[in-house]
Design a protein that fits this description.
Elements (H helix, E strand, L loop, with lengths): L5 H5 L7 H15 L10 H15 L2 H10 L24 H17 L18 E7 L1 H6 L1 E12 L15 E2 L8 E6 L2 E6 L8 E2 L12 E12 L8 E4 L15 E7 L5 E4 L2 E9 H6 L1 E6 L5 E6 L8 E4 L15 E8 L6 H13 L5 H18 L1
Organism: Jannaschia aquimarina
Family: Belongs to the DnaJ family.
Subcellular location: Cytoplasm
């Protein structure tokens, strides 16, 4: 049976460049890998076909010979002039061909990065840190500069983060030759694992620093100044770049994330940029009308007119007296909600006056009269 054209096997045009061939191979290898095609009995044969084609076309000399002589360049029919080792004679290096796509298929599982060879970075970036900061509503209104104490890991000053004693440098790991990974052959698979000697660092420290034990960092509390912008809300996140944990062996420092929590206020309730304040008023002030003095979040005072006949729940707005906008300009509003207060602990004289008022106020309660008319209609309907 005649062999398929190698270009056709990979799904590329004749004369395709190295990058295009490599991309096509990776795509085909992923698609036809036997582990992903357990229900396809032909997958293994097709997978080997793809590896065979790529083993030839990825090599410039083999590709040139194939372009000129086709499959005859590898079946021994060239009289010794052409390349003799190749997939057609059973000598194809499937492990070499498959290594290009191995990290794409299993890179995440093995800890590698797809499409990248070589060893791991020896220096490790420090961890990001989180700090929860509680502030008052007044601080959120005006904005503040706070000093916080953060327990973290900082670069060891004794070894300048190298992890070695004195001025010595870390030595390259003899097991992995500084790559941080070791490879083992299993059939046509190349299995890559973290080096057991250096734990993936690529280096070993023969004379560790006495202060940090070779890690290149020590635990320490740091004091930092944090600028809290006006208008922050609970859940606001502030990022301080480079203020996190120091990296291992001179690696870059992580970041510090400050999460804001605004405390509840005894007078004001917040709704975005708006503030709400529930103000109790005397029954007489609500009936006759008058003024009430209310506080504002900036520490000031405002006098608000109470219209005659005001009921509990009536709202009035003070424009621009809310919280400043965190993003943008302007401020929210402050809403006053009235709570008409019933008097308690009445004297005999006060009770007498209220009874007299009740006799004279038969037509002064429209909401009550409307309610009882509806109740009467409801009961009448139930009777019928």
């Amino acid at each position: 049976m005649a062999k398929r054209d190698y270009y056709e096997t990979l799904g590329v045009a004749k004369g395709a460049g190295a990058d295009e061939i490599k991309k096509a191979y990776r795509r085909k290898a992923k698609e036809l890998h036997p582990d992903r095609n357990a229900d396809n009995p032909d997958a293994e044969a097709q997978f080997k076909e793809v590896n065979e084609a790529y083993d030839v076309l990825k090599d410039a000399d083999k590709k040139a010979a194939y372009d000129r002589f086709g499959h005859a360049a590898f079946d021994g029919g060239m009289g010794g002039g052409g390349p003799r080792r190749g997939p057609a004679g059973g000598q194809g290096d499937f492990a070499s061909a498959f290594s290009d796509v191995f990290e794409d298929l299993f890179g995440d599982f093995m800890g590698g990065q797809p499409g990248r060879g070589g060893g791991r970075t020896r220096a490790t970036r420090g961890s990001d840190l989180r700090y929860n900061l509680r502030i008052s509503l007044e601080d959120a209104f005006s904005g503040q500069q706070k000093t916080i104490t953060v327990p973290t890991a900082v670069q060891c000053s004794s070894c300048d983060g190298k992890g070695t004693e004195g001025a010595s440098e870390p030595a390259s790991c003899p097991t992995c030759s500084g790559m941080g990974k070791v490879r083992a052959q299993q059939g046509f698979f190349t299995v890559e694992r973290t080096c057991p000697t250096c734990a993936g660092a690529g280096q070993i420290i023969k004379n560790p620093c006495r202060s940090c034990g070779g890690s290149g960092r020590i635990d320490k509390e740091r004091q930092l100044s944090v600028n809290i912008p006006a208008g922050v809300e609970t859940g606001t996140r502030i990022r301080l770049s480079g203020e996190g944990e120091a990296g291992l062996r001179g690696g870059p420092t992580g970041d510090l994330y400050i999460f804001i929590e605004v405390e509840d206020h005894p007078l004001f309730q917040r709704d975005g940029a708006d503030l709400w304040c529930r103000v109790p008023v005397a029954m007489t002030a609500a009936a006759l009308g008058g003024e009430v003095e209310v506080p504002t979040i900036d520490g000031g005072r405002s006098r608000v007119k109470v219209p005659q006949g005001s009921q509990t729940g009536r709202q009035m707005r003070l424009r621009g007296k809310g919280m400043p906008a965190l993003r943008g300009t302007g401020s929210g509003d402050m809403f006053i909600e009235l709570a008409v207060e019933t008097p308690v602990n009445l004297t005999s004289r006060q009770k007498e006056l209220l009874r007299e008022f009740e006799r004279e106020a038969a037509d002064n309660s429209p909401e009550r009269d409307s309610f009882f008319r509806k109740v009467k209609g409801f009961w009448d309907g139930m009777t019928q």
